[in-house]
Amino acid sequence: MQFQSYDPGDFYDELFIAKGQPRPEAALLIERINALSMEELQQRRLAAQNALFKLGVTFNVYSDNQGTERIFPFDIIPRILPASEWEHLNKGLKQRIQALNLFLADIYSEQKILTDGVIPRALVESATGFLKPCIGLKPPQGIWCHITGTDLVRDRDGQWYVLEDNLRCPSGVSYVLQNRQLMKQTFPQLFEFSAIRAVDDYCSRLLDALQYLRDEHMRTPSVALLSPGSL
After folding, report:
1. Spatial CA neighbour of 70 closest among 54, 89, 57
2. CA 52 to chain centre
3. Do residues 44 and 29 make contact, with C-beta atoms less than 8 angstroms apart?
4. I want to staple 121 with a disulfide (CB 3.0 to 4.6 A). Which of 4, 73, 114, 190 is the partner?
5. Global pTM?
6. Judging by beta carbons within 10 Å of its beta carbon (0-12, 13-18, 19+), is residue 179 exposed, middle or buried?
7. What is the structure's pLDDT at 66?
8. Where are the alpha helices (DSSP H) in 120-172?
9. Of 203, 187, 216, 141, residue with least CA distance to 33
10. Which pLDDT belongs to residue 228?
């Protein structure tokens, strides 16, 4: 598969700066893809999809009355972010999660943001996710959202934007872990010769976060993770 004729035009392209000019962080990936034929690339894509199906990495569309499970979409072309861009996103996401926690803490306590008219009171109190019994609740360590799934999109100018924040049921972690494993199998050289940050420690970090919420009198709490499917 060759990219010589590919022209990103005036849109922001995550692989190319301009026609025939890969971004520095994507140069090795483009080199590997150029070494493959279209048939080989398709074979690797099908192999990844079959692996996802055998591993049970599927999802349900709950609005679908048939209730059929679908294979989670897998893009054979990985998205590569340079370290500097990820650091910017990382800082922004941490700031956003802290702001969300402070917002929930205020909503269920003094409600200053409603009294000051920053957000209409009726908008919050009529929301299906607003739980009046939680008013006055003091969660462990003052943390309301322990796991946050933030959906990010990139505009044609290359700028990142937040599409939505998922706090009640932020699913998708197992997809990230399996996606990375399949990507390692698809482009092993990319991981061998690039300093790509690992995601394998997610489960241990999640355990640390949940154990942090333990009662001060409990030294070794048992932690259970509920899931609608296998991880």
Report:
1. 57
2. 18
3. no
4. 114
5. 0.81
6. buried
7. 57
8. 121-125
9. 187
10. 65
